Fold:
Amino acid sequence: MCAYMTLSAFFRLPHGTKDFVRDLAALLLPLLAFEILAIMGLSIHLWGTMILALSILHTSGKNPFPLLLGVSIFFLVFIGQSTLYPWASTEFTLSILVGLMTPFALLFIDTKWSVFQRLVDVFRKEMEYRRQAMHLTVGVTMTIFLYYGILHTWLLGALIPVALLFIYLLKKRQLPLLEKALLVFERAHHFEKFPGRGSLCFLIGGFLATAFFSHNIALASILVLAFGDSITNIAGGYYGRFPLPYNKHKNIEGPLVGALFAAGAASIFVPFPIAFAASMVAMFVETIPMKLGTWEVDDNITIPVVAGIVMTLLLAF
Structure:
């Protein structure tokens, strides 16, 4: 898969960021489709389908190489998996259809409404969208790594002093490459005051969740942080109209919409009603300004802790 992605990337490099976004969608849409099929009880041909979808998108002009390579790897995946699992012909047919339909649907949507160019423009111009996209990506990645045992509580704890060392070096202007990368996702005045504070607090929040709560509740709490905080800031900051009476800088639409998305994500690990209740409490607690002395408590710490406590209490009854 990695070799295929590397080779096929050469056919997209001249086309720029727009096509990267479209290729990313070609990965995510088959994933979503087969998550739905998995809920229905069908096993999934996910990697083969995504390879097929990407190979069609990467085929440019008269060069058939990406498509031929993708189809070849698709069938190699099928043959390899079929030696281990009984693959029904219906499911194989579905995987081919999704792999074929995804890129053509994306190309049609982009041609008609220029969706991907608009996304690229938004992320170039709006710092907040970039910040929240990174926030969401880090949260989902952390959850996946914890779920599959790549990350552990002790490792998250060990990464905290490492992160503090990097922050110290950033303050001393000794990591120019990392500084440039962070400034893509972090406001300059925040960087000057405390570079990487959000990432550090996210790490601490993830560590506390895994240290004090059961496995499923910890994963659900991290997803509440990843989805809830990101969506809350976007929905409240850009589309909110009704400020909260106790915090004029926050709008009521933000935590409501954020809690709904967070509950949907967290319901992978806990029942939806419990996920929704925990998300609502966590999102509204996040809107309450909290300080320990002169230090403002970061919501990357409070959200997973509050969500985890609520889920633990509700599941106990």
The chain has two domains: 2-121, 126-316. The chain is about 75% helix and 5% strand. The chain has a mean pLDDT of 80. The two ends are 45 Å apart (CA to CA).
